[in-house]
Amino acid sequence: MILSAVEWIAFLSSTISLVPQIWKSHTTRSTEDLSWLMLFNILLCSVAWIAYGVILHATAVWTTNIVMAVSCFYLIAFKYWNEYARG
Q: What is the CATH number of domain 2-85?
């Protein structure tokens, strides 16, 4: 029971960590302050944690990091669109 509570706390706190940045980027239409290095580092870490969680059959680990990877990929795509595709 305690482990399950800790898993949920970790899941929620990790997955909401990028929400303020997504919200600000979306509402201001600006990604200028986002670092490419930070975004790719978060994505790389998430992919590594997904692999780790799958190997160990740790559902809480891989599901949390899938949400993180998708959130980070959204920010990467939005930043790319703002800086290169949009002009």
A: 1.20.1280.290
